[in-house]
Design a protein that fits this description.
Blueprint: H1 2-44, H2 49-59, H3 68-80, H4 84-113, H5 117-131, H6 135-157
Helix pairs in contact: 1-2, 1-4, 1-6, 3-4, 4-5, 5-6
Length: 158
């Protein structure tokens, strides 16, 4: 019984360390998105670009939807107002955000939580399919827990 509790305690400690890494990765991704948004909004000529970039970067933490909640309607409003150039520029900035996130997120998250990026990506995709948008967060957490279990198992079988 004591050995079981010791193993469970190690798994929980490793899992919390991984979750802490996931939070660090989310903060790093938000900073990256903020920088890209600042540059893009400044380049486009949007007033108060820094404040708007900060707001969008904070909203970008929401799994799956993220910055699209703001960027897509914003571009659509400009398109309907007849400002097609500005609408296309905002749309292009959103596409850049999505591409950078798709490339950087598994790399940064995988590095922070100690799981290979491909496993983080696969876990996230499977969890999104199974659980919907909340699966984007659950995927990384489940990958952390599985890694912790395998690491502890390896310690006790060696």
């Amino acid at each position: 019984m004591n050995q079981f509790l010791a193993i469970l305690n190690e798994i929980l400690a490793a899992s919390f360390k991984g979750v802490r890494g996931y939070v660090k990765a989310a903060i790093k991704m938000s900073i990256l998105m903020f920088i890209i948004l600042c540059i893009g909004l400044w380049w486009i000529g949007i007033s108060w670009w820094g404040v708007k970039a900060l707001g969008i970067a904070i909203i970008d933490i929401i799994p799956v939807l993220g910055s699209g909640i703001i960027m897509l309607p914003w571009a659509l409003v400009y398109l309907l107002m007849g400002q097609t150039s500005l609408a296309w520029q905002l749309g292009l900035l959103y596409i850049v955000l999505v591409i950078v996130r798709q490339i950087a997120d598994p790399l940064i998250t995988g590095r922070e939580i100690g799981v290979r990026p491909i496993y983080t990506l696969l876990s996230t995709i499977i969890c999104i399919v199974l659980f919907g948008p909340i699966g984007a967060v659950l995927g990384a957490i489940i990958a952390v827990i599985i890694k912790a279990i395998f690491d502890i198992k390896k310690q006790y079988t060696s």
